[in-house]
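Contributing: when you submit paired examples, paste them exactly as shown. First protein:
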Amino acid sequence: MRTAVEVVQRFYAAAQAADGAAIMALLHPDVQVHTAPGMPCGAGGAFHGPRDALTRVWGAVFADFDTAPYAESWHETTDGTIVVTGHYRGSARATGRPHEAEFVHLWRVTGGRISWLHQYTDTARWHQALTPAAG
């Protein structure tokens, strides 16, 4: 069986490839996803279940952005929570404007699948990329 860290690493690889099928395969049937309030595309809030999370979070983001999360530091807590910090990097499809936003992801893995994610990010950076450049 894969370790929790390996499961989360596979998630980042799938997100970088914008591979929805691979993301779905990694999600526990009861996955809970909590994303930063204020995320564009309606992607901020609490989502339950793989289909809801894929459609309303990653699908919505991938529709409006050519972006991916890039992990930079990894920590595992004594209760098994995996803490990952890094940056989202990419651009908004409608404006072509680049964006880079820091993130912190808290993960839990149950039975070899992602069962919980809590995301913190700088939502203002996301919105700036969606705003057409002045001039």
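Second protein:
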Amino acid sequence: MGSVGAAEVRGRVRALLAEWDPGRTEPGEFLRARFDAGLAWVHFPVGLGGLDAPRALQAVVTEELEAVAAPDNDPRRIGIGLGMAAPTILAHGTAEQKARFLRPLWTGEEVWCQLFSEPGAGSDLAGLRTRAVRDGDDWVVDGQKVWTSSAHNARWAILIARTDPDVPKHRGITYFVCDMTDPGVEVRPLRQITGEAEFNEVFLTGVRIPDTHRLGAVGDGWRVAQGTLMNERVAIGGGASVPRESGMIGTVAATWRDRPEVRTPELHDRLLRLWVESEVARLTAERVRQQLTAGTPGPEGSGLKLSLARLNQQLSGLEVEMLGEQGLRYGDWTMVRPESVDFYGRDAGYRYLRAKGNSIEGGTSEILRNIVAERVLGLPAEARNDKDAAWKDLPR
């Protein structure tokens, strides 16, 4: 990192505001100017939306811009791009790829999705079957992906596919950027337990991806994907710094305060226990964010994501219980195709059902327990008989 300090960052923000009055500037134009000023993500390199500054100084930018109600890039809508695609492109992309993708990704002009999971390769992601075959300067991709958030709105996707079936499954995978508007890409909605179609399944039939859209070396896709997944779990569990009683615990605490008639000693005990656990999770997320200022995310994000999935499910259940008959009311979200997950703008019934997915998305809780056990606690790994055999020889 360079020697950029808080005073210089604050000065750059004020210079941006002086030239581009957010009250008179079209939001997209303002966001592009902010990116070019190095104030998108200050820890990124100069010329790529950053200043080579410490990550912690992003809070200075946020404080100054929020004070004047400057437009933001709607991070909930473009969370996959911000939390997963951008750090992967920065770490493994070519200079041309960084210059092409990062600016419109950050401004929200191009939405991204993630083509990783498959019907037969969810928890065992390395067992994926989608194939990419080299054809001159292109790769021809055939396969099916599933549980793809934002695919119906996405311009680009981060994609992993099998390029060598003759080696063990972790070593025959390559990482690509896929144009979601190309011929052969078909997006179909998936109806969830909530009734809406927030997720999708994606069919890839003869999709041609130029080799210039490959991230990392051929066959090194698993290593590249591990970085993506670590960033995803940090993004889910440890996003921006949040105040006490944020998220589900705030919603449930407000219900407790507003409905004294439902209070019982047993409910009070459960609420206090969950309040303490939520505060522990919040402070852990803050520690993970501080660790990020010194390097790349590690397995701690997996533990945090695991904890928050369990808390959301328990808290949403407690909220429904406290609301009684009112908690059984449920809006009609049938086949709604949202641009982002609106967890807190919906009713309690929606939150209760949607929270069930928290222990699946971003890595199942079972897999995350293995990661915490092996990589954080140092416990012996489970016995595996499929790590050294060629993927083509594995039973299916």
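If you have annotations for the second protein, write them as plain sentences, like these:
The longest strand covers residues 199-210.
The longest helix spans residues 265-292.
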